[in-house]
Amino acid sequence: MIPKSIIKLIKSLDQKKYRKLSGLFLAEGNKMIHDLLTSNIEIETLIATQGYLEAYASQITSKTEVIASDCDQISKASLLKSPQEALALCKIPDYDLNEANPAKDWVLCLDGIQDPGNMGTIVRIADWFGITDIVCSPDTVDVFNPKTVQATMGSIFRTRVHYAELPGYLSTMKDKNIFIGGTFLEGDNLYTKRLPSSGIMVMGNEGSGIRDTTMPFISDKIFIPSFAVGDKHAESLNVGVASAIICSEIRSRNLRP
């Protein structure tokens, strides 16, 4: 049986203010919890069916509160439309921004991304291409929003997401001669542009792109060209799709002779 106080806490984590107050976020789903158990994220409470707990007993630490439950109870506590066998209350990690080192590897920078699905997709893309750090403007959607957590498909446990005022952060990086590129609807062709082996790539808001306060710190405007024939084609790309193209291109440069 899941205590009512725990169910109330789980439901509250749908709101950012309660995630901040409790210092917790929610992870749900069999594969998601499997990835969580093999990560460095601290689990405060794990709720799962007896069968699931037995299957992963060797990976559950003594620090974790464990509650055995059935699928009906888990369904009542869950924020998902189709709950599975496990969910967990996890401690929000406190990452050091200094861990992001664009002098040695690429760092993604998100300027005002608003959609939880887009945010989750970008975290997943970063994980796929081995980009370990993402720096976000304070108004970018909270990566620990339950919808975002689900959209990462477990990549949130392997990717460090930081929040910082971008003008200050980018100014500091520019002073260190770090390459700072940004995606625009005009600029240098991504596929012919010479790019360094490390740096920062800024991705803008879904509707308005990179904001005016961020632009002065971007040294190179990058454009993803359309290959459509004629004048009629999509006006722009979804920010998640654009992020995937950018990440694929910057990584593929290391494979070229």
Task: Write out key terms for the chains shown.
257 residues, alpha/beta, 60s Ribosomal Protein L30, Chain: A, Alpha/beta knot, 2 domains, 6-stranded parallel β-sheet, 4-stranded mixed β-sheet, 9 helices, 10 strands, elongated
Separation, N- and C-terminal Cα atoms = 60 Å
DSSP, total strands: 10
SSE string, helices as H and strands as E:
HHEHEHEHEEHEHEHEEEH
Widest β-sheet, arrangement of strands: 7-6-5-9-8-10
Averaged pLDDT: 94
Largest sheet entry: 6 strands, parallel
Total of domains: 2
Principal-axis shape equals elongated
The structural class is alpha/beta
Binned, the helix content reads 25-40%
Number of helices: 9
Could you tell me the CATH topology label of the largest domain.
Alpha/beta knot
The CATH superfamily title of the largest domain: SPOUT methyltransferase, trefoil knot domain
Which CATH class of the largest domain applies here? Alpha Beta
**Beta-strand content:** 15-25%
CATH architecture of the largest domain: 3-Layer(aba) Sandwich
Low-confidence stretches: none
- Rg, rounded, reads 20 Å
